[in-house]
Amino acid sequence: MQSLKVLFIGNSYTYYNDLPGMISQLAASSDEFQQLDTRMIAVGYKTLEWHYGNPETLDAIKQADRDIVVLQEHSMRPVEDRDKMFDYASKLDGEIKSSGARTVLYLTWARKHIPEMQEGLTDAYLTLAGKLGATVAPVGMAWQKALRTNPDFKLHKRDKSHPDLLGSYLAACVFYATFFRSSPVGLTGTIVDGSNEILTLQEKKAGLLQSIAWETVKDLGNP
Fold this sequence. Notes:
- The structure is a single chain.
- The protein has a single domain (3-220), classed as SGNH hydrolase (Rossmann fold).
- Helix 7 (117-132) links the parallel strand 4 and strand 5.
- The protein is globular and about 45 Å long.
- The longest helix has 18 residues, at 82-99.
- Helix 8 crosses helix 10 (203-220) and helix 9 (165-180) crosses helix 10.
- The protein is 49% helix and 15% strand.
- By secondary structure, the chain is α/β, with parallel strands linked by helices.
C-alpha cells in the first residue's frame, strides 16, 4: 500500500465539495490500495499572504508529519498581484521544506465568463513552480482542455467561479495523478462530497475526465 499524508492550504476552491475527501475516495478505489491521510486549512476568500500570518497554518506545517503540502492561492491574485503571490508562496515553501515536506501548487481555473484568464493563471503558477522547484497540480489546465473538447460540461457553479461536483471530480483526478504519478483511468466514478451528495458518472464520462487529467499531468512533465 502506498500512503501519503497531505496538508491542503487554501480557500473555497479547496473546501468546496470536500476536494481532499474526493481525492481520498479515488485513491481508495485503486487496485493498488493507495491511501491518503488529509488535513485541510481552508478559509473562504483567503490568500497565501493571510495563511502566512495565520498561526494555525504555520503550526500545521511545522508539525513535520506531512509528506506534501498543497498551496492554493486566491483565484484572482495570480493575475492581479503576482508579486505578492510569489512572495508569500516562497515564504510558505520555506516553512514546508524546513518541515521535511514537499510543495505542490494547486493551479486553479479561469472564471467561466473570462476563459482567457487561464493563460495568466497557468503562467503564474508554472513560473512560481520553476522558482521554487515545486510540483504543479495542473487543475486549471485540465479544466481548459475539458471545456475546449466538451463545452457542455458543467464544471462551474452558477456563480461562474466555484467548482460544481463535476469540476471537483476532475480536480480530484488531477491531484490523484500528481500525488501518485499514476493514471486515474479506471478509478471509481461514484464520489460522495462533503454534504453527502453523491456524484455518479457513467463509465464513459468518468473515463473521459480521468484521461484528460492524466494526459494533462503527463504533458506537464512535473519534477
